[in-house]
Amino acid sequence: MKMDLNYLKKLIKMLDTSELAEIEIEEEGTKIRLSKPRPKMVASLPVQAVQPAQPVPQQVLTEAEVSKNLIKMQENIETKNENISEIRSPMVGTYYSSPSPDAEAYVKTGDSIKAGAVICIIEAMKLMNEIECEISGKIVKILVENGHAVEYDQPLFLIEKD
To answer: Which H, E and C letters describe the chain, residue by residue?
Structure first.
């Protein structure tokens, strides 16, 4: 089945205007599943009378939501100490803490560094880009794990300025 945009729009509109919470359609080997958030129910019983029969599932966050939450937390840390600066990713790519898997990391928490020193590599489009520190100071915290994807302008390091 070829995905027809008008068909999908009609399905979405049908779901939005109905009382259904989910639609699942399978045609010619193609499966489409649409769902909408269920409205929150207001309990009419007193709180102490309501006993959950099973543990309440924890909220599952997407990777993007986790990143946003981490960025907010890091911004709060920075505002608490004006002597702390963030080194942010200049590009989207994969963060590497060392020049090769068996080599020692460029920097570790607690290291003193000078402006212009290489602090990590970000691989983008098969190119290894050495990232240099723009300020001198001490590495307070490394905010990214080796081998993980980073976004443009994502905080990588917290540095206490000299």
So the answer is: CCCCHHHHHHHHHHHHHCCCCEEEEEECCEEEEEECCCCCCCCCCCHHHCCCCCCCCCCCCCHHHHHHHHHHHHHHHHHHCCCEEEEECCCCEEEECCCCCCCCCCCCCCCEECCCCEEEEEEECCEEEEEECCCCEEEEEECCCCCCEECCCCEEEEEEEC
Domain residue limits, the chain: 1-36, 84-161
Burial category of 103 from C-beta neighbours within 10 Å (exposed 0-12, middle 13-18, buried 19 and up): exposed
pLDDT at 73 over 70: no
Would you say how long the chain is, in residues?
Answer: 162
pTM equals: 0.51
Distance separating alpha carbons of residues 79 and 59, to the nearest angstrom: 28
CATH 2.40.50.100 fits 84-161, yes or no: yes
Tens of pLDDT, residues 109-137: 999 999 999 999 999 998 999 999 999 99
Token pair, residue 1, equals 């089945």
